Amino acid sequence: MGTTREQAGGAPAPGLARAGLETAAGWAPAGAPSYARAFQVVVNVEVEPRATVPRRAPEAAAEADRLWLEHARAAAVIDEEDVFLVHGADRDWVRVRRTAHTALSDALPPNGGGMIITMSPDGRRLCALTEEDEDYWIVVHEFEHRPTG
Question: What does pTM read for this prediction?
Answer without folding.
Answer: 0.86
